[in-house]
Structures
1.
Amino acid sequence: MALRERLRRLAQRPGSADIGPLQAVVAEAGRREDDVRALDDAALTAAVAELRETGLRADADLAAFCALGREAARRALGERPFDVQLVGVLALLSGRVAEMATGEGKTLAGALAAAGHALRGRRVHVLSVNDYLARRDAEWMRPLHALLGMTSGWVVQESAPDERRAAYAADITYAPVSEVGFDLLRDRLATDPDALVLPEPGVALIDEADSVLVDEAMVPLVLAGNADDEPTTDTAVSPDEPTPTDLAVSPDQPTPTDLPGDHAELVRRLRPGRDYTTDEEARNVQLTPAGAREVERALGGIDLYAPAHLPTLTAVNLALHAEALLHRDVDYIVRDGAVKLISESRGRVALLQRWPDGLHAAVEAKERLAASPGGEILDSITVQELIGRYPVRCGMTGTALAVAGQLREFYELDVVVVPPNRPRIRVDEPDRLYATADDRDVAVVEVIADAHAAGRPVLAGTPDVAASERLARRLRRAGLDPVVLNAKNDAAEAAIIAEAGAYGAITVSTQMAGRGTDIRLGGADGADRDRAAEAGGLLVVGTGHYHSSRLDDQLRGRAGRQGDPGGSVFLTALTDDLVTRYAPDQTYDGPTADDGLVTDKGAHWIAGHAQRVAEGVDLEIHRNTWRYNHLIGLQREDVLAERDRVLRGDAGDALMRDRAAAHHRELTDAAGEDAVAAAARQLVLFHLDRTWSRHLAYLADLREGIHLRSLGRGLDPLVEFNREAVPAGKRLLADARDAAVEAFNALPPDVDLTAAGVRRPTATWTYIAHDNPFGTLDERAFRGLVAMFTGRRGRSS
Ligand code: ADP
């Protein structure tokens, strides 16, 4: 091997693929630049179209595409892609994840790669993390795509079904991951092939790939509806039972009520520590024996733990969760008389999202708000499953290398580290560690005030919205005037972020993931660039570390873009949540300076260790959740395959001819073949969907139950789960068919489906189950195990 080659390989970062071959293609594209400039627009578009035939695999074709794409961007957008951007394009076209720092121009690289993938004959979805970015990027890149001879479209939350269909029919579609997931879920309930919205999956090009593929991967996207309106026993009140509002408690009365409002009142009267305990790490809350007695007394002397009172116990637990674990302005805000969730990872209001029904109602009750309608889960899918459907995947992000192992493990994706266009000169100062959060907060204000005195723009990152507010208050008391970013809408936020680099600006924000807006030095128009640069460029101040170093890097990466001057410093405290939660056994009682500064190496080690433990826990949760979901995914595939045969074919009618032959003949005589075939189709679809939704509910209960049973008994919950879930899954299709045949036999001669009990949901809604503050069941199960292994008990138990 030539020495140069060996040196180049040495310089390559571990975990990252070799970019040498890509750079060679880019160099060739550079040599073609002059030729391409000579083409007029029509000739340029035609030259791109010619590449369609080649499949865009050979280096020469890729180089031709890069040259044409660069020229098109120059003409359509006024930006000539840098060589490193073209390296990014090639990485994306090779089906890998490109790590490109903030401000390097990922939007443009992604748009060119999307066009390249489209030339290969597949539809491309450019998946973003929110509506704002999907629409912004699609509109921004539209002239480029048009010049390349491609159509493009975008989907956002408000898009109507027709608009969605049109957007998905384009060569390139920009959409938030969640909207594509919701469209898929809705399509899976379609009763008419013409109502389908999504085409076959082609290429997924994922923006902020680590956020989507790792952090949010196991988040269920949920479709719920008011599907099942059979009267149930819990709403039918017989005269001799107490009425639901009857809380007048006398000792000889049975359970009075399971209304959330009453339970909220009840738990509000309980005293933390005495009546219930919370466990920081497991994020669980439990009644103490004294608390249980208090609840039992208030509910009329019932035995709370008797099997008959399980619904009451559950309801009390939900109320307790809402009371003790969910904090207003941290986990949710109340706006316009409704509870709006704050997405923990992004610190923003998550539109149209709600917690699982019981919990949502409990929080509404806690805040004394009117209850919003509940429903049942019709289907759900995780982001990982959604992405797994695409035969071709690629992505881009500023922070990929740190999760290269997971991208490989879960998606078979490799990472390519693309060097910056101009060398980075950002100065990252070593961490400053303080004994207490209070010491740290004082120091943070000082650091910001000092930087500001010199006119230096400052971006301060906090762990959550409440911390942002606290910091802002401290800054205002110090005579400063910060702009606080939290829980605003994405577009307004983008405008504020764009100004964060202005001379003298102070911006306070929670986590930066999903805030895909560039921070230019000197403000959005760069007016004050020189002054801001002279003052040292953007200074990023982190107040405490996040639960992964990647999130720290995302914040840090906002400074020093495109070779600008800039700096970053993190000020952490030994009392930060991250440290007390993940390194509970490590304590430091050595010396501290007067201002609380701790320089001891061991103490610094503890802070770093806590973050590594947190990262390890997150990874185990991901793996564990994936194991559960894998089985459910396989079962869903069976149901969907059957559904497709019924929806698009005559499997429904064939089933009835076979299993209900006599009635089929009678109905055909009365109503005609077509009407009977249509009714058979609807009946089978209805029962497939209903069987599936009930199966999901059953699996959820099963998991909850197994989780409780296996804790402390050394059983493997997954094995226990599979033992029951596998046979239940095997019965699914047979159960659905039996139910459909039975319903068919009850069809009257006019084939009136409502007479056969077919009631489709009159309303459906979607949410991201993400924001369950104590995590998904798997997370709780896993955290419980961690707590057991480390012998940790609740704080006050
Ligand atoms: P990223 O998503 O990588 O942080 P963006 O796609 O938001 O970066 O781009 C950052 C800024 O750089 C945008 O204002 C964009 O217009 C600009 N930009 C991107 N590529 C180029 C280029 N080749 N020449 C000049 N400006 C560019």
2.
Amino acid sequence: MSRARTIRIVEVGPRDGLQNEARILPVEARIDLIKALAETGLGTIEAGSFVSPRHVPQLAATAAVLAGLTLPPEVGLPVLVPNGRGFSDALTAGARSIAVFAAASECFSRHNIGRGIDQSLSDYRPIVAEARAKGLRVRGYVSCSLGCPYEGRIAPSKVVDVASRLAGMGCEEVSLADTIGVGTPDVARAMVAAVAQEIGISRIALHFHDTYGQALANVLACLDLGVTTVDSAVSGLGGCPYAPGASGNLATEDLVYMLTGLGIETGVDLRRLAAVGRAICSSLGTRPRSRAGQALSAGMAEEGAHV
Ligand code: MG
């Protein structure tokens, strides 16, 4: 398999990013962030979550965020739904795209979503079926695909099992998440290759965290498998809930810079994206975590401008 000529980036900053940031942004600021990200050319932006605001106050009022967005219909705005109630709220809010989240680790599943893997999957089945029947797009996440804070290393066979069941129930796309960011390139590639054998590479999204500085290397290691979709968060928003102070999601600016250098299209305007990254870090009171964003802020040239 060779590298795709175009990579679709799923920007997860306004959901996965913000839910792990200490400062809670008002609804207007979340709307402005999503609009600004769409203006950079990003075509899929995770817009929020319908989990309980008691658990994730950063993403309360996601319905108001959706209501405040008037973007072209081709911009995908997936929202996370944890259960039937969240799904019902998402439908009421007019969501056209949802995501459900399972884990490859039994311990993490019980700690994070209060249900074992089997229970979570059987709870999602009717939600996914109804969503698909209503014409919604559905993505499934597999957390802890490369490691778990409780169980340590996770066997690829466990990821294959959960990813196959999500795909089998109707998730068009399965995002393989290195939730704690412990993976390294060969391990990441082997895991993704194993899942691709079962569900096909075109249905897989990579979701790597930069806790140990490996996210970009892990993406690169998987590109030759023919991966077409990669998740990232502007300015690397997010942190790691199990490693306070650690880096978060792969930064979208860094991903775009690397892909551009590889001759792969993303459709994203890097300079505009870097400006969005600076603005959101200022709003959150956090230091910028994208190397490319910092270089551009300091006046360095974009890839291609160097001789
Ligand atoms: Mg993440």
